[in-house]
Automatic annotation (TrEMBL):
Residues 7-397 form the FAD-dependent oxidoreductase 2 FAD-binding domain. SUPFAM superfamilies: FAD/NAD(P)-binding domain, Succinate dehydrogenase/fumarate reductase flavoprotein C-terminal domain, Succinate dehydrogenase/fumarate reductase flavoprotein, catalytic domain. Its main location: membrane. The keyword ATP-binding does not apply. It is a peripheral membrane protein. It comes from the Bacteria. Residues 453-585 form the Fumarate reductase/succinate dehydrogenase flavoprotein-like C-terminal domain. It is found in: Cell inner membrane. FAD binds at residues 12-17, 34-49, 217, 380, 396-397. This is Succinate dehydrogenase flavoprotein subunit. Its EC number is 1.3.5.1. It comes from Prosthecochloris marina. GO terms for cellular component: plasma membrane.
Length: 585
């Protein structure tokens, strides 16, 4: 089996992975491995913008940004990590500009900023224009810029290689096993440091804004190697996905003046968030939409969606500020948003939980935060816990850039102080994967992948969605347990080596059922409503019992062990604004 050596292997070529690569390149030999071409990474789909208290549009401060992030998280975010992110945000934006990101501009030449849900001035007094943007293609231009910078700095790329497992020796991570999709050959990548930036896992739900590649491979691999996942019950549904399709309509549409209306034409968010209305945090807006539908005030013949009204904006403004949204509405629904409202419904969008890390991206191997040497994670696969129970819009790209960079810097420090000779590579992981592939392709019986995956997506959509209750969550755990067994016995019918996507989907499915069970178990155990986790049977937030992170481990046989970890409330000790309180907007 071929063995390739680099000082650093980064798995994932979105903004977190590329920002880390740019930081490491020139100091150490770094390679980025991705199951896609880097420019097809899901970061490129981010539309609305990236938050930073630059104050270009009006007075703003990182402290107000931190307050909004913590309040938006329903006080579950780790406050030190939030402070780090918000204080670093203005510098990060200027750095991106200097690297070549073509931000939209005000007439005086400064980077333009617009309102986004949950972002306020003066500790919640009024909405503030904090989100920097490039029309509605912000992720796209950031991704292209960092890819260009990575090429300029000599980063090695392995495109269309899918990670299968970690290599570990002497308690440290020192490589990965991957499959080259083009040839079907297994390869070992030996390194002194490994970083996961593999993205989210929205494809475990039927209706989602996530790309087909977002199957949560990094989380499944971490679970299989005895590492925990944190806060998996907190999965954000974006309020405005295209009706029945889930394709995202950015929050920037409401930031620019769009209004949500029910089937009766009412601006219903005035009922649920009277001060900031349509720009309330996403969890509140999604629940409000479903409440309107529950009360029979939905739109259309089925009364199962609401309307995003952009007709109050001029056609020129829509074309300038929201060109992708205009084309999406026309192409997929045949609606011109300048003339008619767009039918929308909530869509599974973002995972607040993931592999637990510290503020430097170091992966924690247990509930006490013990570091796993040689292993980092950043981006949506990670849980540094700046988003807590609910992420504010435009904080995601900021998370990727800030903690991708910090992980890169920490990897440099780590490599500078450890021996230049890497820990000898254990080939046991490669042998296990080779055997697993042989079993999948050599099995005479067993189910196909598609019906199991579809059933999983239906279970997650029906029982682990915006509204949850004990009976539904218990059913979900029971059904996913059965799906784990069925997924373990699936059969791969395609016997070819080259571009065997069926084999890759089989491996992805086995990850999906495991972390989906962690989501369902964590949601069942958390007997309160907080942020994106809304329980019909426990409708109040319970700080006395549940101001804690959930930690999950995968046991042999597929069981999930659930425990808790204390939330960091460091800012609350010095500022009354950061003490958990009632969450009104």
């Amino acid at each position: 089996m071929q063995v390739v050596y680099h000082d650093v292997i980064i798995v994932g070529s979105g903004l977190a992975g590329l920002r880390a690569a740019v930081e490491v390149a020139g100091k150490h030999d770094v390679a980025v491995l991705s199951k896609l071409h880097p420019l097809r990474s899901h970061s490129g789909a981010a539309q609305g913008g990236i938050s930073a208290a630059l104050g270009n549009a009006e007075k703003d401060s990182p402290e107000w940004h931190a307050y909004d992030t913590i309040k938006g998280s329903d006080y579950l975010a780790d406050q030190y990590a939030v402070e780090v992110m918000c204080n670093d945000a203005p510098r990060a934006i200027i750095e991106l500009e200097h690297l070549g990101v073509p931000f939209s501009r005000f007439e005086d030449g400064r980077i333009a900023q617009r309102p986004f849900g949950g972002h306020t001035s003066n500790f919640g007094k009024a909405p503030v224009r904090r989100t920097c943007y490039a029309a509605d293609r912000t992720g796209h231009v950031c991704l292209h810029t960092l890819y260009e910078q990575s090429l300029r700095k000599g980063v090695s790329f392995y495109d269309e290689y899918q990670v299968l497992d970690l290599c570990m020796a002497e308690g440290a991570v020192n490589g990965i096993v991957a499959i080259e999709i083009k040839t079907g050959q297994l390869m070992l990548f030996h390194a002194r440091a490994v970083m996961f930036a593999t993205g989210g896992y929205g494809k475990a739900w039927r209706t989602t804004s996530n790309a087909f590649a977002n199957t949560g491979d990094g989380l499944g691999i971490a679970l299989n190697n005895g590492m925990p996942l944190e806060d998996m019950e907190f999965v954000q549904f974006h309020p405005t996905g295209l009706y029945r399709l889930g394709i995202l309509i950015t929050e920037a549409a409401r930031g620019e003046g769009g209004i949500l209306r029910n089937g009766q034409g009412e601006r219903f968010m005035e009922r649920y968030a009277p001060s900031i209305k349509d720009l309330a945090p996403r969890d509140i807006v999604s629940r409000s939409i479903y409440e309107e539908i529950r009360q029979g005030r939905g739109a259309g013949p089925m009364k199962d969606h609401v309307l995003l009204d952009l007709t109050g904006l001029s056609k020129e403004k829509i074309v300038e500020k929201l060109p992708e949204i205009e084309s999406f509405a026309k192409i997929y629904l045949g609606v011109d948003p300048a003339e008619k409202p767009i039918p929308v419904q909530p869509t599974c969008h973002y995972a607040m939980g993931g592999i637990p890390t510290d503020a430097n991206g170091r992966v924690s191997g247990d509930a006490e935060g013990r570091e796993v040497p040689g292993f980092w994670a950043a981006g949506e696969v990670a849980c540094v816990s700046v988003h807590g129970a609910n992420r504010l819009g435009s904080n995601s790209l900021l998370d990727l850039i800030v903690f991708g960079r910090r992980a890169g810097k920490d990897i440099n420090r780590y490599l500078d102080r450890i021996c230049l000779t890497p820990i000898p590579l254990d080939t046991g992981a490669a042998a296990r994967m080779s055997e697993k592939i042989a079993v999948l392709k050599g099995r005479d019986g067993g189910e196909a992948i598609t019906p199991i995956r579809a059933e999983l997506q239906n279970v997650m959509m029906e029982n682990v969605s915006v509204f949850r209750h004990e009976q539904g969550l218990s059913e979900a755990v029971e059904k996913i347990t059965a799906l784990q067994k069925r997924a373990e016995a699936i059969r791969v019918f395609d016997q070819s080596e080259k571009f065997n996507t069926e084999l890759l989907e089989a491996i992805e499915l086995q990850h999906m059922v495991n972390y989906s069970k962690a989501v369902a178990v964590s949601a069942l155990e958390r007997r309160e409503t907080r942020g994106a986790h809304s329980r019909d049977d426990y409708q109040s937030r319970d700080d006395a019992s549940w101001l804690k992170h959930s930690i999950c481990f995968l046991e042999e046989g597929g069981a999930i062990t659930h425990m808790q970890k204390t939330v960091d409330l460091s800012l609350a000790s010095s500022r009354a604004e950061f003490v958990p309180k009632e969450r009104k907007y």
